[in-house]
Amino acid sequence: MCSYVLAGCTVHGLFGFYKGILPPVLAETPKRAVKFFTFEQYKKLLGYVSLPPGLAFAVAGLGSGLTEAVVVNPFEVVKVTLQTNQNAFAEQPSSFVQAQQIIKTGGLGSQGLNKGLTATLGRHGVFNMVYFGFYFNVKNILPVNKDPNLEFLRKFGIGLVSGTIASIINIPFDVAKSRIQGPQPVPGEIKYRTCFKTMATVYKEEGFLALYKGLLPKIMRLGPGGAVMLLVYEYIYAWLQDTVTHK
Mean pLDDT, the chain, as a whole number? Predict the structure, then answer.
């Protein structure tokens, strides 16, 4: 990982690390809003079905992940295209121009702005299923601490493990998504087309561990990041409920 960082800094400069930054910035707020809002809505809907509470959390997480993937995939296509652009930072097109170019050449479908949608559905669906399912099930099992500081650490620890496990389980979908949405090995020839076929190709040609490329930086980002997201969600949700109740 360190060698990639040094090589990238040498070739493209410091701003090279920020290629494709605008699409995730634009997508991040609605993405998180969709994640947690739809999780709550699916959880309420599943209340009408006779599912065990533990399973309901996982299914609601799966539903929220699939919904989130549909919203975020076009932004991901633009981001990956910009990040794999070999031009210097100052020479690359803007996010909006890049999106227009993708639509012009590939349209809005599976060869254009929604390229790699099945892999994105797998990535977000599996991640949220494990993320929410593990967190709420384990949180309900482990005893609550009366000390607010210890209770904060308890929730943070569960959230950290949730984000880490979810990252480990869903990264093959992430690798497939990057291969499909990124540049193909031979220009003009589409090698990586569908999610599971791409996984099978990577496994056959590069070995099992190739499906886990980039795992360490992913865990470093989504382990603590996932914990922070759940804590912010929980405390704000509790505050809003308390505010509404006392009105």
Answer: 87
